[in-house]
Amino acid sequence: MLRSLKLPVLFLIFFFTACGNDGPTAPARSVTLLYPNGGEVFHFGDTLEFKWQAVDISNVDISIERLDGRGYYYIASRAPAMSGTFRWRVSRFDLRGFLIPPGAYSVDIGYSGCTQQHGPGPGGTCIPIDDQSDGAWYIED
Length: 141
Fold this sequence. Notes:
The chain is mainly beta. The chain contains one helix and eleven strands, in the order H-E-E-E-E-E-E-E-E-E-E-E. The protein has a single domain (31-114, 122-140), classed as Sandwich (Immunoglobulin-like). It has one helix spanning 2-19; strands at 30-35, 41-43, 47-55, 59-66, 72-80, 85-89, 103-111, 117-118, 125-126, 130-132, 137-140. The radius of gyration is 22 Å and the shape is elongated.
């Protein structure tokens, strides 16, 4: 009798261990920057196509930051996340009208909303869902 129960019991232990009591869970929300990710060179007037992979988020904000710490520039606000791309004509000005100088940059791409809160109630802190380029890329005249 015990031998005949062994296989079903093992299956149930595996199922509840792997899936939890509520069954399979959805993948965690995420965004992963694919391009530019380091080493690329662009000139003002070029078209740069930002590329990423997104899981379970609706939109993203795209910003670039000078690696010398002297500027943070907004490129796109609430771009559709599932498209995985955003085309930007490399401009001397960001969305706010700030001058973008030539130099070394990194990209920050992130979810435009808050998905989880740390702490109780509406005063909690938003947990960011974002990714940055792995290396420097460049804007030249």
